[in-house]
Known about the structure:
Elements: H1 16-21, H2 27-34, H3 49-61, H4 82-96, H5 102-114, H6 127-143, H7 159-169, E1 188-191, E2 209-212, E3 218-223, E4 231-236, E5 248-251, E6 265-270, H8 279-287, E7 299-308, H9 309-322, E8 325-332, E9 341-348, E10 351-357, E11 363-364, H10 366-371, E12 383-386, E13 394-401, E14 404-410, H11 412-415, H12 421-427, E15 431-435, H13 446-456, E16 461-465, H14 468-473, E17 491-496, E18 502-506, E19 513-523, E20 537-542, E21 546-548
Parallel strand pairs: 3-13, 4-7, 6-12, 7-8, 14-15, 15-16
Antiparallel strand pairs: 1-2, 4-19, 5-6, 8-9, 9-10, 11-12, 13-14, 16-17, 17-18, 19-20, 19-21
Helix pairs in contact: 2-3, 3-6, 4-6, 5-6, 8-9
Amino acid sequence: xxxxxxxxxxxxKKTPQNRRFDIGLMVSDHxxxxxxxxxxxxxxxxxxxADVFAVAASLLTRKGAYASMLKKxxxxxxxxxxxxxxxxxxxxxxxxxPTTPNGIVSRWDSLMKGAGSTTLRGLxxxxxxxxxxxFLCACSDEACSRVGLPSPSEDSAEExxxxxAFELIEDGKHGSTLCEEVHPDNAxxxxxxHTPQSGLTIRSLSLHLSLITTDEIVPRWHxxxxxxxxAFNVLFVPWPLEVRDxxxxxxxxxxxxxxxxxxxxxxxxxxxxxxxxxxxxxLHSMLKSKELASNRVHAVVYPELSVTDTEFKALKQIAKxxxxxxxxxxxxxxxxxSYPCNEVRVAAPEVDTITxxxxxxxxxxxxQIEQYQLQADLEPEKQWWEHIDISSREFMxxxxxxxxxxxxxxxxxxxxxxxxxxxxxxxxxxxxxxxLMDGPQLKARWxxxxxASLADDPGSTVLTVTxxxxxxxxxxxxxxxxxxxxxxxxxxxxxxxxxxxNREIELKAGAEGILLPFISRTRTEWAADGRxxxxxxxxxxxxxxxxxxxxxxx
Length: 554
């Protein structure tokens, strides 16, 4: 087929595409979608900052309009410094709410006035409109400084503002959002702990608020009993300590589940043998160890699929008695549910257990079957899918104290960018705990690569953990390394820091747990508009890990 000659743009006829789309959508079309009342006479500025942020930030994402701001920045605001003006306006808004500062109202009115005459395609060329939008974003962001934390302020003038934020973000049937007017089906706004320090996205423009435009997954924000102090000691127990032949095995699908699945695919499940000691008795013996006698435990962590529903309830009682946080992978079998589930549960004193399901199934191929020596139970020539329910699309954030907002990931959720990856990057939690059923946690393996990515952007501290039993089943690239100094199979945890530090954490012989003493550090982070957070961005630094032996072994 002959390729048609190119026609100069000025003489080009209307192509079918141009006839279909013409000038495209207007700014007003976007406003009507996000805040429908602007299509009526009720076009006034919202009084609540998160609603203004949702409108302005979502509009700046259209056609990447935010990228045009850096051509000439900052704009002049009379004789005042732009950053000072934004900070003062944001603080005044927080103290005067529900009254909206005049500077915000005038910028909003300017946006409404130009919305009907500016196309989304031409937005980035409208310098004044872009400046108005960035100003609205930045002031809203400054007004919401420390929103989402358990104790955001001791200033009585700000009490009403923060109490209202607490009421709005409280978990409800639509999940969590700070917005009062903008419906979560259109956009959400959540608190934010970290701002990426490289690259340029809409996330680069805010320090305290995050914009969520996808509704594929429902975020939920939970407040935990406030933990006071900079130390955060995590006892990691790499349970089960042994995974035997037959613990991973094939299983039948549910009735009418994937009736058209090809014969070279199948389902597997994890049903480990009954150990000689219950997991609850084992934890009791760990907590009585001499290594923990002088170190308070703030949280106990178990890896993916480590305990059953019944075992978790026993561990939860121990956590309640010991006044610590429990984070554990839980396997829910056919016997206790209509569908097997792979969950992470978080329990804290005086808080109901919070459950999050895995969002991706693990697929075992021939390479992994051979790596974990599963040939006796799973045919290597087939591909095996983890038999679990993945219909739940919810994701949890936990606010424990200033500088400690954390979240949990289950195995493949760490490796897959969607549906949770963008959400994690938007909020930038201080701490990400990835529960895995995996081999050694080495920097060069896949968990290390993906953890390093989150440590870089958004700047979270990341801890990946696996069970000793599964890691010991993993054959090294050279089997001759087993039981030599080159054997790395007891590396059951990996810590990655935004300060470009990392550490492979090996469980020493005789030990059955590791105390990870974290301490909060802070650094300064900058937004692309020139604002900084005053050196308040927190991350967790890891001190020297302590090997923990059960009391009976000490």
